[in-house]
Amino acid sequence: MMFFTPLKWEKDKLVILDQTLLPLKEKYLEIRDIETLYEAIVKLRIRGAPLLGIAGAFGVYLGIKDFRGDKEKLLKKMEETINYLAQSRPTAVNLFWGMERVRKKIMGNLHLHVEELKEIALQEAQAILEEDIRISQKIGEYGSKIIFQQDSVLTHCNAGGLATSGYGTALAVLFKAHEKGKKLVVYVDETRPLLQGARLTTWELQKAGIESYLICDNMAGVVMKEGKVKKVIIGADRVASNGDTANKIGSYSLAILAHYHSIPFYIACPVSTIDFSIKEGKDIPIEERSPEEILTIKGERIAPHNTKVYNPAFDVVPHHLITAFITEKGLVYPPFEKNLHKLIE
Amino acid sequence: MMFFTPLKWEKDKLVILDQTLLPLKEKYLEIRDIETLYEAIVKLRIRGAPLLGIAGAFGVYLGIKDFRGDKEKLLKKMEETINYLAQSRPTAVNLFWGMERVRKKIMGNLHLHVEELKEIALQEAQAILEEDIRISQKIGEYGSKIIFQQDSVLTHCNAGGLATSGYGTALAVLFKAHEKGKKLVVYVDETRPLLQGARLTTWELQKAGIESYLICDNMAGVVMKEGKVKKVIIGADRVASNGDTANKIGSYSLAILAHYHSIPFYIACPVSTIDFSIKEGKDIPIEERSPEEILTIKGERIAPHNTKVYNPAFDVVPHHLITAFITEKGLVYPPFEKNLHKLIE
User: Fold this and answer.
1) Topology (CATH level 3) of domain A139-343
2) CA–CA separation, A159 vs A204, rounded Å?
3) Which positions 285-324 of B are in contact with A (Cβ < 8 Å)?
4) Residue of B nearest to A206 (CA)
5) Are the beta carbons of A294 and B215 separated by less than 8 Å?
6) pTM of the model
7) Which tens digit of pLDDT belongs to each residue from A118-145?
8) What are the sequence ranges of the domains in chain B?
9) B237 counts as catalytic
10) Would you name the residues of A annotated as active-site residues?
């Protein structure tokens, strides 16, 4: 079951949820050409790493679907499409990955006719979408086993369906447990500076009909102390091969607070998030972002002029503070160095 | 040295800093009558428990200073003034305390003439102001001894001069260390939901010329891990006799994070903050405040409609996570049960 659909393919068009209007307005856009898709990506109407990969794949098909001409010109049209869409968000690795998968599919099937090549481009995009859904569902399925009846969970940022094809990672676990009839309460960190928890996670949980309470990030400790939270589940941006996990700023503090209160701390992520080329957390580069993210909220300035700011986008949860990883291949417990590796053996 | 003056008495008028315009605008208001003072209190132009006590005391004088008539009518005028100002902020305990002190002074000196009674009312208000400054200065003096050259401190909320007569508690320590030529860096938690750190503490530190960095509350852990912070100093709303300390929400999380990183954690507060009638932290009632404080920022809504919220205004730092108290009578180390009591013996 999906509680909302941030992206779907309908006959000859992409239909996407305009995420810039959330959480106060739910509006879907129909995208029939790459110019409209380009605009949607630039304006962040569509966002989230996995979702951009899927959008990129469909984008390649949108760019060639009305093409008439020979095979050589089709390939030229495909390259133009990819180059054009690549400029919409040059740092979005998944966008490139999604387009590249479609390109490879076409290049590996050049014996086919033009119309057949278009058709397999569409099929590949659909396959990417279905894979993403399947992985999320699997994460949800495995994760739901650790959720008890009447459980209460704290989550941070938005590891939900809006960044993926609709089911997410940390939130997939909650969605699946809820589907199975487990009654849940979820505490949602608002997640400063960009408030993804307040804006997106609360919205997703409401769509799913899961009871939730929004809290400020600095309330996590007291919520744990009062026994309101039985486990913490968050997503991951990047996992090192020893299990150290980079995720949205605040994850590290949360892991220490959970440790202090003897509350299990879980990371839900697809296996693709584990970067086996990275040995440990200190090797993961941490991006520092614009001071304006902290200094202004919705365009309103909250601090004096000339205020200096420290604004790391992520922090790293050391592996010894993590109870287990929840992946599409099952739960992974310590020792992580050894057991994460088994996932790809 | 005072770096700014939230309230002062000038010949026949109060001059107050309009705190509603901070941090972007610094404007002083002249208050010559109780109607103007009433408006300033209602609109929160003047705020902070100790400061309201001082304002109330001067308010009583403002209400009677131009009175012409006999002693009986003077007392009636005084009572009218107190009743009128009491309505400006009916929950502000210190406001009543300040007015009561002036009333008592007058009632204890009824042998004096009308003009003399007015005069001692003004003197009492000035005495309250001076006491407040002296206490803050003393806290600063004792606290500055634990600050090293090139030290770095994290603070939460605003335990500064704006809530007092200009010098504060936690910030008094930093002001005094800075005056003594110690070079400091201060990390300031923005302090959601009301952002007192972002709005007020950064402003105060800038006025004093102390280097500071604003961070989101959820960045405290990583700032500690990176070695950027050598000690934490915060204020207190109420201290139980065993040392358990209620303070702005987030203080509890911060104490655990400091403990995990072996960073000393100090509470700076006047002895009057210690409530010896309360045995331990769990007996301190914690106010839950309006959901709107979290759901909107500067009038802009950040979460979906129908979002449920948990919004405790304070939390309690257990005494075993506190390194020492910094008071106007000196530093107090464990065992707190015994050593706090010595302050009033």
Assistant:
1) Rossmann fold (3.40.50)
2) 10
3) 294-295, 297-298, 300-312, 315
4) B307
5) yes
6) 0.93
7) 999 999 999 999 999 999 999 999 999 9
8) 7-137, 139-343
9) yes
10) 237
